Amino acid sequence: MAVPKRKSSNARSGSRRAHHFKKPIQLLYCPQCSTAIPSHVVCPNCGYYMGRPIVEVAPK
After folding, report:
1. Where are the domains of the chain?
2. Is the pLDDT of residue 59 over 90?
3. Contact present, 58 and 46 (Cβ < 8 Å)
4. Sorting pLDDT into bands at 50, 70 and 90, what band is 37?
5. Interacting residues of 47 by C-beta distance below 8 A, sequence separation 6+
């Protein structure tokens, strides 16, 4: 079984984990109603996705 010969340093493990932080959500604006929504998601305000109505939204 493979076992490390020496202890890996804090710098080495820290540089390996450099990309493990949380990233903010990519927000886009709906072209129909200008609501900020995450990318690749149907707009909860108007029900459009990629310029087409996908979901019928009840009027408020």
Report:
1. 28-60
2. no
3. no
4. very high
5. 53, 54, 55, 56, 57
